[in-house]
Amino acid sequence: MIVILKENPDLKQLESFKSWVTEKGISIHESQGTTERILGLVGDTTQIDIDLISALDIVADVRRIQEPYKNANRKFHPNDSIIDVNGVKIGGGNMTLIAGPCSVESREQVCEIAEAVKKSGATLLRGGAFKPRTSPYSFQGLRAEGIEFLLEAKKATGLPIVTEIMDISQLDCFTDVDVIQIGARNMQNFELLRQIGRTNKPILLKRGLSATYEELLMSAEYIMAEGNNQVILCERGIRTFETYTRNTMDVAAVPALKKLSHLPVIVDPSHSGGRYDLVEPLSLAATAAGCDGLIIEVHNDPEHALCDGPQSLRPEAFDALAKKVSRVHAAVNA
Ligand code: PEP
Ligand code: MN
């Protein structure tokens, strides 16, 4: 971190700032330019609040050299992290397809979809049981019963399951869940992140609706700082001025996050586009950009889906998509 001091700084304030910094185990390298005096802070500056320093009377400007996240940072972990979900490996060159309904609606629905997506090459089953809905009057999910149905589908197909937790009080229902999803709306629920950081389950962390890459990585850092390093990042579209699509898929997030972090990056083209006809082209674009996997909503009767029918693929469309994704993945990795 570089701290540029104002001209003629108050010496008492300067001394007290310096001792505050050194007490944190950080060393200071001073240099005197022609007009500016500069302090180089060397050490673990992740614990230092940059806004606090820039507000000091003696400080003209502060710049971070090192990112504020450490565990998620590729600089300290150059190799790709590979997350093992019951034998399914996510990251490190593997291309993972996660598919299933937006919401679990019945035992029959989720089991039928699970069988179909497995045949097409999906290796994980998704399905929401606790649903974050914009309206309190919309279907809120089958909750604990939904997880029971997912577990039945897991038993029948062998597919590990991914489902969202909205509050830590629900954790007891997640004992046999393989991957816990943190939805976009909870990306900055720091207390929840801390708590799931104390579990030993892989976490699928979705990017918030208007979160920067750094904010997403800081949320991953919350989980990892508690000891759980099994985090999968997910780009799911961000809010922009465009209204035709539900969100705007940020394809640059894939190479950028993979450059900044060693964590696997997957893409959700369903919530990005919000329309079934956009799911395949968005999936191919994300695959070409180098994502480690896709999470896709598939429904056997989209017209009657209780949630997100317009963006859900029928099993046949998912099958066609899976074949194309595998060709694009092979082409870009040839
Ligand atoms: C979901 O995956 O069902 C979901 C609600 O996604 P998001 O949190 O990205 O909106
Ligand atoms: Mn959905």
Ranges where pLDDT stays below 50 over 5 or more residues in a row are: none
Please report the distance between the alpha carbons of the first and last residues. 41 Å
The total domain count is 2
**Ligand catalogue:** phosphoenolpyruvate, manganese (II) ion
How many individual helices? 10
Question: Main beta sheet: strand number and arrangement?
Answer: 8 strands, parallel, barrel
**CATH first level of the largest domain: which class?**
Alpha Beta
Morphology call: elongated
Q: Give me the side-by-side strand order of the main sheet.
A: 7-8-9-10-11-12-13-14
Class derived from helix and strand content: alpha/beta
What is the fold's blueprint, element by element?
Blueprint: E1 2-5, H1 11-23, E2 27-32, E3 37-42, H2 50-54, E4 59-63, E5 83-85, E6 88-90, E7 96-100, H3 107-119, E8 124-126, H4 144-157, E9 161-164, E10 179-182, H5 190-196, E11 203-206, H6 213-225, E12 231-235, H7 253-260, E13 265-267, H8 269-273, H9 276-288, E14 293-297, H10 315-332
Parallel strand pairs: 7-8, 7-14, 8-9, 9-10, 10-11, 11-12, 12-13, 13-14
Antiparallel strand pairs: 1-3, 1-4, 2-3, 5-6
Helix pairs in contact: 3-4, 5-6, 9-10
The structure holds phosphoenolpyruvate and manganese (II) ion.
Phosphoenolpyruvate binds at residues 102, 128, 132, 183-185, 206, 236, 268, 271.
